[in-house]
Amino acid sequence: MPKGKNAIVTGSTSGIGLAIAHSLAADGCNILINGFGDKASIDAEVKELQQKYGIKVDYSPADMSKPADIAGMIDQCEKQFGSTDILVNNAGIQFTAPVEQFPADKWESIIAINLSASFYAIKAALPGMQKRKYGRIVNIASVHGLVASVNKAAYVAAKHGLVGLTKVVAIENGENNITCNAICPGWVHTPLVQKQIDDNAKAQGISPEAATKIMLEKQAIKQFNKPEQIGGLVVFLCSDTAATMTGAPVIIDGGWVAE
Q1: Three-state DSSP class for 9?
Q2: 14-60 residue pLDDT tens
Q3: Catalytic residue set
Q4: Is 135 within 8 Å of 176 (Cβ atoms)?
């Protein structure tokens, strides 16, 4: 199991990333969290992880749109903990619009944070992993890494690219005991998704319950994934049980892409 390993989780000051950090910490991993937010809130999250799980915790404010920041984050983990054994690329942003109306700056930002950031983090982490002959890389992709939806050109392109990157890293590093997999969730209930539900309900003049039903209609199981379920899947992919799983898009989508 991952106990005693050192893990970086990007975009982990809230939502799915924070749940992943808690899941790895509960399994005994030291954690470097990353993301933006209120300093007091982040300090409280670091303290909670330390006290609740008895592990080492550090924080990096690295901007995932800046390759130099990303390399510095990996270096920080190596210096503070001695190694980067697990890398979870979770940071992501979203913007929706038809292709012909999609702002160029939004395209560039989404590709940078949802795709390029993972490339730069993996590039920086691999030399140490290769030297130690151990590494577990988990990229948080999406069902949109496998199928498309309207008005999400940049997000879909980035997540498809992330699944492709996952496969290349996997086949290049299989002999080094380094695995690389992508988790492809359907809808996950987070504060950001709840805000989207509320905004959709207001815009359409319907109840939040009705807006939720519309959102989940593509899924056979009409339920949201929970952030801690994604965290549990990350722990599994980092465990000895999954030691021969690599290059796989692991789908947890309520049946979205089964149709």
Answers
A1: strand
A2: 999 999 999 999 999 999 999 999 999 999 999 999 999 999 999 99
A3: 155
A4: yes
Structure tokens at 85: 């054994």
**Residues in the chain, overall count:** 259
Residue 46 in contact with residue 126, Cβ under 8 Å?
no
Name residues whose C-beta falls within 8 Å of residue 243's C-beta, 6 or more positions apart in sequence: 177, 179
- Which two structure tokens, joined as six digits, stand for 147? 């199928």
Assign 97 to helix, strand or coil: strand
Rounded to an integer, what distance in angstroms lies between the CA atom of residue 74 and that of residue 194? 32
- pTM here? 0.96
- Is 256 in contact with 147 (CB distance < 8 Å)? yes
Residue 188, token pair as written in the block: 């996950």
Residue 51 in tokens: 């006290």
- Residues whose CB falls within 8 Å of the CB of residue 202, separated by 6 or more in sequence, listed in order: none
The residue to which tokens 């950090």 are assigned: 21
